[in-house]
Amino acid sequence: MGSQLSFPKDKIRIVLFEGIHQSAVDLLQENGYTNVELLPHALDGEALHQKVKSAHFIGIRSRTQVTEEVLQHAERLMAVGCFCIGTNQVDLEACLKRGVPVFNAPHSNTRSVAELVIGELVVLLRGLFDKSRDCHEGKWNKSAANSFEARGKTLGIVGYGHIGSQLSILAEAMGLQVRYYDVVPKLPMGNARQVASLEELLQTSDAISLHVPASEDTVNLIDAQRISQMKKGSVFINASRGNVVDLEALASALKKGDIMGAAVDVFPVEPAKKEELFESPLRGLGNVVLTPHIGGSTLEAQLNIGREVAGKMIQYSDEGSTNGAVNFPALSLPRQGELRHRLLHVHHNQPGILSSINNILADSKANVLGQYLQTLPNVGYVVIDTDVESSDGLLEKLSSVSGTLRCRILF
What we know:
It is a single chain. This protein has helices at 22-30, 45-52, 68-73, 92-97, 110-126, 128-136, 162-173, 198-204, 224-228, 247-256, 299-319, 353-363, 394-399, and strands spanning 14-16, 36-38, 57-60, 79-82, 102-103, 154-158, 177-181, 193-194, 207-210, 234-238, 259-264, 288-290, 341-348, 368-375, 379-386, 404-409. The protein has 411 residues and is α/β, with parallel strands linked by helices. The two termini are 13 Å apart. Helix 1 runs parallel beside helix 11 and helix 5 packs across helix 7 (162-173). Helix 1 (22-30) links the parallel strand 1 and strand 2 (36-38).
C-alpha cells in the first residue's frame, strides 16, 4: 500500500463535460475519487468559468474550449483530460505555463474511425446513399452504372498513424491495394507501400482517406489544386480534422463530376448544440455522405476512451506520473510502499533551477529516496521522494525558488 495523498481524494473536485462515458466516473470512483460531476453537454462563457473555478481536474471532448480566459478562472486546476484524440480545443501552451498537464486518448477510438471509413468507402463506391434515398422516395433505379467493388482498387491514406495504419489492415483484408503518404518514414502494415509525395498518392489512388492532425501545416492541405490532382472518378473521405480540406473546392469538384463521391465527418465550423443549424457547401450534393463528427462515437470507443483518460488522470493525481501528456515533460514514476513524501516541482527550464532545488534539499538534511527529472525546451518537471522526518518546510522553500511555476506535496 502506498502513502495517503496529502490532499484527500474526496476533496479533489472533478468536472466532466459533454456526456463523457460513465466508465470514466466508475474508474475514478473505484480509485477513491468520489467528488465527480458529470455534465451532459458543453458549456461556454460565464457558465464554463463558474464550473471550472473550483475544479481540480476537468474532462472535456471536442466542443469545450479551454482558452487562456477559461484558465484564468480555473484557479485550482491541476490537469485537463481530453476524452478524444484531438487537443486543439485546449490552449496547450497556456496550460503548460501554469504547470497543468493535458492528457488525451490517442488509441481508444482508432478501430471505430477505421471501421467508419471502410463503411463509407463501400457506400461511396456503390452509390448506396443515393440508392437508399431513392427507395425511400418510392423510386426503383436498379442499375450497375457507377457501382464498383472495393477489391482491387487502390486506397491512398494520408497520414499513417494509429488510425491510418489500422485502416490499412482492414482495407488490405478486403482486397484493396494500400498506398500511404506521411511526412516521416513509417513502417508499413502488411503489403501497404509508402509513396514519396502527396501528389503521387492523389494521382494514383481510387480512394483517398485523410488521417492527419490539426496543425499550421495541415490547414487546407487538400485545396483546389490538390483536388485537381486526384484521379477522375475517385472518392474522397475525411474523418480527421475539419480545417484540412477546402470544402468549397471539394463541392465544386463534385458538382463538375471530377470526383465520384465524398464522405466528410468533420467540418471547419460545427454546431455546438443539436438545436443549431448545420451549414456546409456539401449539403444536398449527390453521393456525398455527411456525418456529425461521429468517427469515434461508438459505445465501445467511448467506454475505452473514458477508462484511458481517467486512468491517466488518476496516475497523475496518485503518483505524479505524466506519461501520455501532450504538452508536458513525460515522467513515469514508481509508487514506493515505504515512501513518506513526494514533492512535485514544475519550473521554467533555466540554468540553476536543479542546483537550487538540490541545495535546499542538502540544507534541509533531507534524505532523498529518489529524484526524477524530465524537461521540455521551456519547462522542467522534477519529482523528489524524501522521508517524513526531514521534509518539513520543504514545500515553502522549493516554492520560493526563482522560476517555479508550481510546487506541491503529493503525499
